[in-house]
Amino acid sequence: MRTILIHLPAYREPELIPTIEDCLKNAKHPERVHFGICRQYHPDDGFDDVDKYRDDPRFKIKDIPYEQAKGLATARAIINDELLTDEDFVCQLDSHHRFAKDWDSTLIDWYDDLKSDGYNPIIGGYLPYYNPFNDPAERVHEPWLSEAASFYPHGTIFIRPTGKPGWKQLERPYPARFLSGHFAFGPNKWARDVRHDPNIFFAGEEINLTVRSYTHGYDLFHPHRVVIWHATMREERAGKLVWDDQSKRGDGSWHQGNDRARSRIRQLFGLESNGHDLGPYTLGSKRSLKDYETYAGIDFEKRSFQKYTKDNKPPPNPQVEDWDSSLMISFYHLVNITRSQLPGKDYKSILIAFDDKDGIGLHSKTIQGSELEKFKQGDNIHYEEMFLTDQEPSRMVAWAVNNNGQWAERIEINL
């Protein structure tokens, strides 16, 4: 019987034990389910005590004191490099999950079906949500796809989940542009070929994994049915996340680690020469970076997407005669407006608009309702704005409307 290594990097994780229990309870063949756990623990927590599993031969556990943790990718690298042995498959997860009945057979059947059609598949993506405090009532029962929201200024891509239209009509996993860090299912060989770069502290992990997997010859697919759930609600871990602990220690690891990771990714994509030795964590030789860009409709150097990509149409993208003209500007701006900039007391709404150099509006958002009330009470208007455009925005305008429906205070910020 073919075996699966469940890949669990757990940092002070209250959901670790419930995840293990649910995984085994819902497996069709629990005897084939093995666990590779990088347990980054605080001795006072207690909720992640795995002692009852230590004598079970299916469990391989690496214990690391939490203050020695070096980031998510390091934990993932430890699992694949040290704990993965002869299992047939790897199911890469986080450590806060729930599982559908017979999830193990379902994933293997999907993989075999794609393999029989000539693909070299990795099945992954963002998993739908469950609430550990109200489970199973608040589980989302629709599969998601991963979309490109925007390029960040430092060169990585903001990848986020969104719904998959028409998913009920799908009969098999469907092509994907991106892998997710918190769910990827593939053969043992994938984990050997595409080793996790331990220098990718957190930021950029997914685009690194995606492009390297594709260039190593793997084909990317999203699940068309819900087979596993993921918890994004983290109240039970408030103050216990890795960046919380590092901030308390004041060692700067979080920001330094992410800056280093982004620098490595820019070098990986040939955008900069930053002096990093990428070693075994470079691109594969089966496909080129350009092959991935053409497949996904993404240009890393220009930090641009094709509209086909932003419309979430399925890859591979159609061939075009003029690549440059097919691209749209991926605009990103961190909006931050203070009460001192717009101090009025009778605002009905605030328009946030982005204009080109000729003053033509390109994109806008209206702040009203609870967002406006929080602003009146002293909170900043603070959010990430991102959109595709044919013209580069040159200024941001914030223009208040008073309760009489008249334009009031206005500010302009050159970009």
Give the topology, please.
Elements: E1 4-11, H1 16-26, E2 33-41, E3 59-65, H2 72-83, E4 89-93, E5 97-99, H3 103-116, E6 121-124, E7 144-151, E8 157-163, E9 174-175, E10 183-187, H4 188-193, H5 205-215, E11 219-222, E12 228-230, H6 242-249, H7 253-268, H8 289-296, E13 298-299, E14 304-306, H9 307-310, E15 327-337, E16 347-355, E17 361-367, H10 369-376, E18 381-389, E19 395-402, E20 407-414
Parallel strand pairs: 1-2, 1-4, 2-3, 6-11
Antiparallel strand pairs: 4-10, 5-12, 6-10, 7-8, 9-11, 13-14, 14-15, 15-18, 16-17, 16-19, 19-20
What do these coordinates show?
It is a single chain. By secondary structure, the chain is of the alpha+beta class. Helix content is 24%, strand content 29%. A hairpin with a 4-residue loop joins strand 19 and strand 20 (407-414). The longest helix has 16 residues, at 253-268.
